Amino acid sequence: MRTPSQLDGREVAPLRKSRRPDVISAVRLFDMYVHLVELANENLLRNLLKQRQMAPENLDDLFEVWTLLTLVELHLKEGWELTDAYLIGGEIGAKRPRFTLARGDVRTELFFQTVPAEMGKASAYKNIFEDYDIDVTMRRPDITVKISAPEGMQYLIVEVKRTRDQGYILDGVYKTLGYVADFRSIIGPNAPLALLIVWDGIKRKTSGFTDSPIHIATASEFEAMSLPY
User: Which domain of life is it from (predicted)?
Assistant: First the structure.
């Protein structure tokens, strides 16, 4: 049996005439696969999620995707234009969701659960992982932002933790600091070097960005945030 990605419309056409419920359902699933994965139809994806016909395996995944799409919205609100988007990794193009936005002569790329190739090469700890045959791709920042401007490059890490418990938030801070240390030779140079987005449970004593390498924001704060670049 061939997989759906190897079928084309002509081969499926005869099945569309069938009255068997199982065949009708199979054709609908094939159409959904084509539109969601191969054509990356954003409107269909949003509608399916809105109607609760599709759901993530857990709420942590949903919060990570929400953070990614909210980050895209923040760019659009500040005048950036979306020039390219891969919503679902497919056989062609990016294997994971990736967005590219532009404003003037500055370009921003958003990488989801992966990093640009040059960041992977710059990892300070890659030799440790290689010595023990550890798959480093299992531990990548949730989102990596790459800003390309005439005056130079800027890299920003975005880590996501769906919690309001301060103990788990503290774990997230240390995890994010680990990423900052691992990629210290390439991220930045401007502060913050990383954003930690949590659901709730923490309140900042001062407003705005500081020289701290990490900026922590709740979901509601993140929605109203101005981009730090």
Answer: Bacteria
The phi and psi torsions of 211 (rounded to 5 degrees) equal -80, 0
Distance CA 100, CA 162 (A): 25
Q: What angle do CA 135, 193, 83 make, to 5 degrees?
A: 80
The CA distances from residue 200 to 164, 168, 215, 216, 220, in Å, are 4, 11, 14, 10, 8
Q: How far apart are alpha carbons 13 and 31 in whole angstroms?
A: 11
The torsion angle over the Cα atoms of residues 52, 58, 64 and 66, rounded to 10 degrees, is: 20
The overall longest dimension of the chain from CA atoms, in Å, is: 65
* DSSP string computed for 52-91: TSS--SSHHHHHHHHHHHHHHHHHHHTT-EEEEEESS--S
Which three-class secondary structure state does DSSP give residue 130?
A: helix
- β partners of residue 41: none
Is residue 210 scored above 90 in pLDDT? no
pLDDT of residue 138: 59
Task: Tell me how far apart the alpha carbons of residues 60 and 163 are, in angstroms, rounded to a whole number.
Answer: 9
The pair of structure tokens assigned to 40 is 């990356």
Which alpha helices (H) appear in the chain, and where do they start and end? Answer: 9-12, 21-33, 42-50, 59-77, 117-121, 126-131, 166-182, 219-223
**Tens of pLDDT along 78-134?**
999 999 988 765 555 556 789 999 999 999 999 999 999 999 899 998 888 888 887
Residue of 190, 229, 222 whose CA lies nearest to 104: 229
